[in-house]
Amino acid sequence: MIAKLVVEFIGTFFLVFTVGQTVKGPDGAGMMAALAIGASLMVMVYAGGHFSGGHYNPAVTLGVTLRGKLSVADAVPYVVAQVVAGVTAGALVLFIKASATPSGAPPSAGTEYGTVAKALVEFLFTFALVYVVLNTATAKGTAGNSFYGLAIGFTVVVGALAVGPVSGGAFNPAVGVGVTVMGLASFSNLIIYLVADFAGGAAAALLFNALDMGGDKSAT
């Protein structure tokens, strides 16, 4: 159950975080916000649906419970995990938006964000990318699927729309090096891409193994 709650937390967190980043403030994704939000839900369902059911929504959990596919004893912690994820995501969105300079000014095109905010979003969406890769391309529960490419690709789309204005949206140390060489990102951001992106990938792998999401330790 704890592992399922972690999966529900992660999926709900990225859904709400994407909503906040793409809708709140003038640096949002505009008309593309709907695509980012829908895609974030899609990739998280692809990644965690085989494990927790991929609810990411207390209303969905209620419906599944009334349908008889989830006990009330399990539904309550599901809802708690989802609500806590929503609050956490909302708080981080406010922190990131507030880090824009000059202090107190609303974020806008070309606004510079703080180093911590840049590192945080690079870590989060590299984590999300590797999390989706591991769950759709290496887990027994999704073996032989035909959607892993779609899920992985759209994770990058979501990240680019949600936090591209904050960090540049590399989510990949090789991309970070490349865009720096091409002059598309400042050299000062390179260390962020290297440290945060490697850390995000490692964190996703450690969690994946800790929760046995690949099914490697499960009885066959």
Structure description:
It is a single chain. The protein has about 220 residues and is mainly α. The protein has a single domain, classed as Glycerol uptake facilitator protein (Up-down Bundle). It is built from 8 helices and no strands. Helix 1 (about 1-25) runs antiparallel to helix 2 (about 35-50), helix 2 (about 35-50) packs across helix 5 and helix 5 (about 115-135) crosses helix 8. It is globular and about 55 Å long.
Task: Quickly list its features.
8 helices, mainly alpha, globular, 220 residues, Glycerol uptake facilitator protein
Quick summary:
By secondary structure, the chain is mainly alpha-helical. It contains eight helices and no strands.
Domains, number = 1
- State which percent range the strand residues make up: under 5%
CATH level-two architecture: Up-down Bundle
Overall pLDDT level:
91
Given as residue ranges, the uncertain stretches (5+ residues, pLDDT < 50) are: none
Q: Could you tell me the CATH topology label.
A: Glycerol uptake facilitator protein
For the largest beta-sheet, the strand count, sense and barrel status come to: none
Q: What is the top-level CATH class? A: Mainly Alpha
Radius of gyration (Å): 18 Å
Termini separation comes to: 20 Å
Overall strand count: 0
H/E series, N to C? HHHHHHHH
Percent in helix: 55-70%
How many H/I helices?
8
- Kindly name the structural category: mainly alpha
The outline comes out as globular
